[in-house]
Amino acid sequence: MINITINDQKMQVPEGITILEAAHKAGIRIPTLCHLDLHDLKLVNKTASCRVCTVELKGRNSLVPACVTQATDGMIIRTDSLRAINARRMAVELLLSNHPNECFTCPKNLECELQSLAKELGVRDIKWQGEKMNYEKDLSSEAIVKDPNKCIMCRRCETMCNEVQTCGILSAIGRGFKTIVGPAFNIPMKDSSCTYCGQCVAVCPTAALTEINHTHKVWEALSDPDKHVVVQVAPAIRVALGELFGMEPGTIVTGKLATALKRMGFDAVFDTDFAADLTIMEEASELIHRIENGGKLPMLTSCCPAWVKFIEHQFPELLDVPSTCKSPHIMLGTITKTYYAKKMGLDPNKIVVVSVMPCIAKKAEAARPELTKDHTNNVDIVVTTREFATMLKEAGIDFKNLPDSDFDHPLGESTGASVIFGTTGGVIEAAIRTAYEWLTGEELKNVEFNQLRGMAGIREGTVKIKDMDIKIGIANGLGNARKLLEDIRDGKSTYHAIEIMACPGGCIGGGGQPYHHGNEEVVKKRQQAIYQEDRSKTLRKSHENPEILKLYEEYLGKPYGEKSHELLHTHYEA
Ligand code: HC1
Ligand code: SF4
């Protein structure tokens, strides 16, 4: 231990600790901007490029960045001296001097960390007017907008993309003032191997990286009297949306969500959870089929589109490993424009399916050529949780005080198994609940598989079904997925089934969710809420969903049958 003094407070701290960490222990806040420390992900962005955490070292007459300066024995630190405060303010003023002054119309308005800092540090005018950058926005992809003019070179996105996701898409290009962050040679995002996981967007402090806004497309569809507009909401929305209306993280808003969607004027309000149950019918059948017929093992879940892009780009030799099931929201789009259209006597060409998703990659997924070749068979528009909250505000809906209501039928019923899709481990737990009963013919009494739960990046468990030990692997975060995929490629994997989600925590931590600004507890609270929602359901196994059973009886025939293959399964391309 060493002795230091911060703002006259004497304290003992472990050797090797930074001034920022020591101040935190002393309950003293030092503002930061480029710094990002996501403990669970072991992600520390330590570029010290912004200098917003400058503190003064007394006796040494120096100003240092607290995030990278180690505390040493006898150090006397002032975080609140005039020199330190002025240096911090100057750092922010310098950033603002060449930043586009368009806060009113910026997608990050009121969510921007640079903007909040300017307020917190009392910046009232900018003493210098610097040269402005004038780069074109990259609007090439269906998912992400890259606006280099708003980049403050914090490099958080780069650390996230390279170290956590191991995708290696983003890095610094150019030198000096003209340096920007982007794919190698600054090629358009759409031509890179970006998975559109959106984790770079989730950690960008400004609007240098944001999702493409598709809200206007939804408003246009809703105002077209010729269109029948159907909406669906992903499992992870119901435990996160409330945050954007001042509610505590982990507040469950399922009933309010259904009411809000009806008030917005959607013709039918369906639930992606219904399709998650449908996915389990297909995926559990596929797993059993592969196990019983010597098929390719392990089978990998396929509902996360960023993960699908990742395997296509990075492991093209393994494309026969993922399940061929389309993701639940795409399945719901298909069933809406076939079964539902037929049942209601609607022209599928006049149906517009909107997905409200926690995910940015779902935008690119809905635009995939093999899924769009038949336009009467897919999802038309995807908006994120954040975009959807904006729409509710535009519509003047007092979300917090809405009464509860239910989803519409016949595609609105769901079980607890489908809700847990929203968290890492949930898809495979749901599949096991069904596979167990189908293989044994016995009732599964305890449906909660605690060994598959948690937040660790890689987890595993073994479930005994009849005389078989089914070995399950789970990865969340693409860097963790890479490790399991390398084992498969090298013939070392012993799993029967693996669930992979690209985002840390699964969809609850999706790139389109409310920003948590580095507070990992927020994602954990969303996870607890998902499990609570599962426990509150009467039915907790997908194959017990009465509307799913009716769908098979009236339209699809049997799970993993001919009609299912035609409508609910897909293929992957390198
Ligand atoms: Fe997900 Fe899924 S769980 S991928 O994480 O399989 O986005 O929530 O909607 O499609 O159901 C996301 C969430 C979501 C799909 C389902
Ligand atoms: Fe990297 Fe994901 Fe961002 Fe693409 S979306 S640049 S893969 S972090």
Question: What is the radius of gyration computed over CA atoms, rounded to a whole number of angstroms?
Answer: 25 Å
Bound ligands, each once: 2 iron/2 sulfur/5 carbonyl/2 water inorganic cluster, iron/sulfur cluster
**Main pleated sheet:** 5 strands, mixed
Task: Return the domain count.
Answer: 3
In the sheet with the most strands, the strands line up as 2-1-7-5-6
Percent range of helical residues: 25-40%
Question: Which CATH-level-2 architecture of the largest domain?
Answer: 3-Layer(aba) Sandwich
Structural class: alpha/beta
Average pLDDT taken over every residue: 96
Strand composition percent: 5-15%
Report the strand count: 19
| Tally of helical segments | 19
The CATH topology of the largest domain? Rossmann fold
CATH class of the largest domain: Alpha Beta
Termini gap: 54 Å
Instruction: Show unreliable segments.
Output: none
Envelope shape: globular
GO molecular function: 4 iron, 4 sulfur cluster binding; ferredoxin hydrogenase activity; iron ion binding
Protein name: NADH:ubiquinone oxidoreductase
Domain 4Fe-4S ferredoxin-type: 142-161, 186-214
InterPro entries: 2Fe-2S_ferredoxin-like_sf, 2Fe-2S_ferredoxin-type, 4Fe4S_Fe-S-bd, 4Fe4S_Fe_S_CS, Cytosolic_Fe-S_CAF, Fe_hydrogenase, Fe_hydrogenase_lsu_C, Fe_hydrogenase_ssu
